[in-house]
Design a protein that fits this description.
By secondary structure, the chain is an alpha+beta fold. It is built from 16 helices and 35 strands. The strands form eight sheets. A seven-stranded antiparallel sheet has the order 3-9-10-11-16-13-14. The protein is globular, with a radius of gyration of 29 Å.
């Protein structure tokens, strides 16, 4: 950066000499992606035979975030991530396997490298010397752990899978090492990775990338291989890439796992290998994977999908949440896919999640997090919400001490976002990929440096200003992303309008000989819109530009644990949340008014009180929309919902400001033909079981939702999954004795997809005192095991307080039930 010395003085001289007509030579065009017949001359791009790079990541440190984004990073530095060694036992240095030269010690798996890969980048982006030094201590330990054969890291992982290696933790460590090299140019990283990848080549193929996590997530390994290849050109790395592709989960054939984080970081994998194979089906597979998940589980604003550990059939309401891990990994996937494909759609998706969903995964001071964040989540309590969400226990409270994976993996969310604000282009230009106040210094054009300051309150403002500083005039193209919601962007150069015809999801390219004091202004007009979610019965969300909006709900923060320095909080509502919006069907956006704030943008804008913009909407309460038996806001029913409650004016704030949130609203009407919502149903009986798979529920036995087939995935189910070939039972307990004479059962059977089958046999028993007795079947009645039908038996009447169904599972298989009914006639 020495060439920048004296820049201010030189710039003043050059400004005085600049011809008045210099602002007139700008050439503006609109393109869908940068040209692929060129290669950036200054920053590592894809080497042949890899497909050309549409965009190229700049070295860490080239981009200095400012404004609200910098403040988020500063909060992170002094919050949970920046001080995690004070909190997390996995980050304790003493005896840690990641610091040991012989790789022995505690915490050998994913937690430490998860934290380190974002922690180091946080230091580099902020140029925080404390964090840089602490990260280096861990990275030096990792480098020192490398064996002669090339393996590095904790030795326990070498034999973790039945004596075979698990290289998943090392994939994360490689990300941290790559960032370290980008910031320091330390050649030892290249040497370590070369030796390590030679070791991977030597591992027998049958022992390489065994299930589960490493096989699912091997796309991360593949990305690191290409990162090194683009710096060394070693052809053996392409052989390793082919080996990884052969052994990894088949994301090229479809969604290989509906686990929240697996999907977030793995759906992209086929597009990574596409760079080498150049089979367009691989590139398109990433799009298809994403669309498959979002079509069923992502019908909500904010860019997330319902996978409260796993995405589950029948659990698709906006109350279904996404792990914090899943958000940061999905954002990283979007960033990678933008650089691989050049498609601005991926930048839009990154922005949507980062600005709407991710901020509320943590409290405003970033001194904790919660495991799950949903679009409709009006209460953040500490109770067990399973099986409404998949995981049991406290998943909603903000806690710096819990949520083991997310506690560590949240670290890279904001640092990676800051590093991807600007990208280099193949024609030696720059691209403003994600808009935020920042400064970028990079080589462009003929190799000289340019400094561009980006000034904006985006996403809360529609104006982005760029101020140029150069030692002398320099020609290069500047790419400006046009989001999908913007149809008429405007440009002005040094106060003079430029013709800017652009389509949504494209790039405006401004090419000229840039002068030392040029100023370019981009306006992205933001219009209100109402999105209708057909799969939620016509419910709606409200959006303006990149922001979705949520109901403003009063917050009561209650400490429930932690320490005085690192407390844990629940957040409870103090105002009603069960509103539906009353909209004009012909022009719903006209029913909502924008109420901009006159106060300056707060350093931390993602809070209810600091919200830089608010909307006013007409709404009515829906009394039947309450918390259900699991403590979750009840699922949406068809709109419009009938209600005669008084019409009120409610405030909507940006979704990212609302930690308590309703973001998908029913519409409402007081007309007689509106849909009358029922009170929340309770289970017909108290059900219990010998075992219930953690992703299923005994409520499914008696929820009254009738299956269409034995493999119906659209309703909740009960299974004994993980128990195979055993004798299992389910039971109904009644509040008072009942007389019963028949029962029928609809078996779950996923032949062709999974390991559940109809049972080998079954029988019914009733409780008499402390004994269980089998019912006596009526003449001609028999226990059936037919698929796709209710199997009914009649028996001599019994009076009992509890009835049990006992099933003998087929050898080698589990089983389950979609509905179990009974009666006395």
């Amino acid at each position: 950066m020495n060439e920048w010395l004296g820049l201010a003085v030189l710039a003043c001289v050059l400004v005085a000499a600049r011809p008045a007509s210099a602002a007139e030579d700008a050439k503006v065009s609109c393109v869908k992606a940068p040209p692929l017949d060129k290669t950036n001359a200054f920053y590592p791009s894809n080497r042949p035979p890899l497909a050309p790079s549409p965009f190229v990541k700049l070295p860490i440190g080239a981009i200095a975030p400012a404004g609200w984004l910098r403040h988020m990073l500063e909060l992170e530095a002094e919050g949970m991530t920046g001080r995690l060694t004070e909190i997390s036992p996995w980050c304790k240095a003493e005896g840690n396997a990641w610091l040991s030269p012989d790789g022995k010690g505690h915490s050998p798996w994913e937690e430490l490298p998860y934290w380190l890969k974002g922690f180091g980048d946080l230091g580099y982006v902020l140029r925080n010397e404390r964090i840089i030094a602490e990260a280096r201590k861990w990275l030096e330990g990792i480098i020192a752990s490398q064996r002669e054969d090339g393996y590095f890291g904790p030795r326990a992982n070498l034999t973790l899978l039945g004596g075979k290696p698990d290289v998943w933790p090392n994939m994360i460590a490689l990300n941290a090492l790559q960032s370290f090299h980008e910031f320091t140019r330390d050649k030892r990283v290249l040497d370590l990775m070369t030796k390590y990848f030679n070791w991977q080549l030597s591992v027998p193929e049958a022992d390489f990338l065994l299930p589960f996590w490493q096989q699912q997530r091997a796309g991360d390994n593949l990305e690191s291989v290409y990162w090194l290849y683009n710096r060394t050109g070693d052809p053996d790395l392409l052989k390793l890439a082919e080996k990884i592709h052969r052994r990894m989960a088949r994301w090229d054939k479809g969604v290989a796992s509906y686990h929240c984080v697996n999907f977030a970081q793995c759906f992209r994998a086929p597009a990574i290998f596409w760079m080498q194979a150049k089979d367009d089906a691989l590139r398109l597979a990433a799009y298809r994977n994403y669309d498959t998940m979002m079509d069923e589980f992502g019908q909500q604003p904010g860019g997330t999908y319902g996978a409260d550990e796993n995405a589950r059939r029948g659990y698709t309401d906006p109350r279904q949440a996404t792990e914090t891990c899943g958000m940061v990994e999905a954002m990283h996937s979007f960033q990678m896919l933008l650089k691989i494909t050049g498609d601005p759609l991926w930048a839009d998706r990154c922005e949507e999640m980062a600005l709407n969903s991710f901020p509320c995964s943590q409290p405003p001071d970033l001194k904790g997090l919660h495991y799950l964040t949903a679009a409709n989540q009006p209460q953040l309590d500490t109770r067990n919400h399973a099986p409404g969400i998949q995981n049991g226990g406290n998943m909603f409270g903000y806690d710096p001490h819990s949520y083991r994976c997310c506690q560590h993996n949240v670290s890279h969310g904001w640092p990676y976002y800051a590093e991807e604000l600007w990208l280099a282009t193949p024609d030696n230009g720059l691209c403003a990929a994600l808009y935020a106040e920042s400064r970028v210094e990079a080589k462009v054009g003929d190799g000289r440096m340019v400094l561009i300051r980006e000034e904006t309150d985006y996403p809360f403002s529609d104006t982005v200003r760029f101020a140029f500083r150069t030692l002398k005039p320099i020609r290069f193209p500047l790419y400006l992303r046009v989001p999908r919601w913007c149809s008429q962007p405007r440009l002005a150069l040094n106060g003079k309008p430029l013709e800017a015809r652009a389509e949504p999801l494209a790039f405006l390219v401004v090419e000229r000989e840039w002068q030392p004091d040029d100023k370019l202004e981009l306006t992205l007009p933001m219009k209100l819109s109402v999105r209708v979610w057909a799969k939620h019965g016509g419910a709606v969300s409200v959006e303006r530009g990149p922001l979705a909006f949520s109901l403003k709900i009063g917050e009561d923060w209650k400490r429930y644990g932690g320490s005085d320095k690192w407390p844990a909080y629940a957040v409870l509502p103090t105002t009603p949340w069960n509103y539906g919006l009353e909209l004009d069907p012909a022009a719903p956006e006209k029913s909502i008014e924008v109420e901009p704030s006159n106060k300056p943008l707060a350093p931390q804008p993602f809070t209810p009180d600091a919200a830089p913009i608010a909307l006013k909407a007409k709404a009515r309460k829906v009394p039947q929309w309450t918390f259900d038996r699991h403590g979750l806001c009840a699922t949406l029913k068809p709109s419009p919902a009938f209600t005669t409650e008084p019409l009120e004016t409610v405030t909507l704030i940006p979704m990212g400001c609302a930690r308590l949130r309703i973001s998908v609203f029913p519409t409402v009407s007081d007309k007689a033909d509106a849909h009358k919502w029922a009170e929340q149903p309770q289970p017909a009986y108290v059900a219990s079981a010998s075992h219930c798979h953690h992703g299923d529920t005994t409520d499914a036995l008696c929820d009254g939702l009738l299956p269409k087939s034995s493999i119906d995935s659209g309703i909740p189910r009960f299974t004994w999954w993980d128990h195979r070939g055993t004798t299992e039972w389910v039971a109904y307990k009644f509040p008072k004795p009942r007389t019963l004479s028949w029962s029928d059962v609809y078996w779950f059977d996923d032949t062709g997809r999974g390991g559940c089958r109809v049972p080998a046999s079954w029988r019914l028993l009733y409780r008499e005192g402390n004994d269980w007795k089998e019912v006596k079947l009526a003449e001609g009645s028999a226990y059936g095991v037919a698929k796709d039908a209710f199997n009914k038996v009649a028996f001599e009447p019994v009076t009992t307080g509890e009835l049990r169904l006992e099933a003998k599972l087929q050898p080698g298989f589990s089983g389950g039930i979609l509905e179990w009914r009974l009666g006395d006639k």
